[in-house]
Design goal:
402 residues; alpha/beta; 8-stranded mixed β-sheet; two-stranded antiparallel sheet; elongated
Amino acid sequence: MPKTLLSFLGTGPLIRDKENPQREYKKARYKIDDSFYETSFVSAAIAQHIRCDKKIIVGTVKSMWEEYYRYFVEGTEAFDENLFWELVNFQDKANHLTEDFPFKAQLEKALENTHIIILKYGINESELNENLLSILRVDDFLGQDDELYVDVTHGFRSFPIFANQVVMYLNKVSSKNIKVQKLYYGMLDIMRELDYAPVVDLSSVLKLNEWILGASELINKSDGYALEQLLKERDSELAKVVGNFSNAMNLNYSHEIRKQYERLLKADFSHLSPQEVLIAEKAFNEFKASFDLSKKHSLFQLDLAFWYYRKRFYGVSYLTLTEAIVTYIAEDINPLNPLENSVRDQAKKEIHKRNVELAHLFTTVNKIRKNVAHMLDKRHDTYLNDIQNLEKRLKKAKSLMK
């Protein structure tokens, strides 16, 4: 798979020379994994280490493009000294008000397999929004199956935040099969202590983002598939438990939900990392607070109806509420087999005899259930009222199904 390096370019310190003002990064000894590289550009060390095929370089009009050009092109036939001095003169005058960077095409041609993205300084909301839009267009310069490596060592402190958004965008929105492999940061600050600058991999932050998003999907949509995929890397059996629970929730088979939920309560997350345990427990604690296995099945179904309502799955909530009422009457008829079809049919026929108030509620919600289940058009003019009245009907059922 092609390897692409996304790197941010800063301004660099100015060498105070009246005759020849230039900027450059100081040469440093970088350590990546077990290898050392001596260079003034950490991106050069990373590119060599990963053997990258192409680069995306992100900076502002004031970034040290002249030094980047000199470092990577000098000594080749593509180097143009006139272009270098034009860049020097341009950078000397450029500031946050400079609108255009006229050298982009020339630099991309000379640098080969390199795409340049120019960002604003980001000193107000308008510039920040423009920057976000520009950085998300990284997707346009990546191939279908690229491996992406990100370097956030240099540039404004806001740029790593943009890098994080790019990663989330590529993982969750892009239609391409891009794999974000590493998030690098060169720790130049501690070079005096170690006699080298470690280039650390911050990919654990990206993985943590995935866990957070996975937990959010489970909490808000009963979709545990993202967590299931993450857990497969740690514990295939635990991943299966989470996946089965999510399947049962999404199919809304209340008996299976109850069974899989019981297994989930017994699951052991202790062998995961502390961060993963924290997120997983947060995700499943809401279910623990919402469902009580000691209740009879009709009340468990009612809890499910409340849960679907809180998640704004209004149609599923009505379906589940209707069945909870039927189960409640069926439990009175045959406590041992309330889910048998014959018992439930009998419950529907006898509900008006056994509980008049509950029968009236059942008649109302069952009309809505039929409209949802059969995709009818009979209640199109009342659908907002059906949503607004759902909570009141759930609470009514709870008071009647004690």
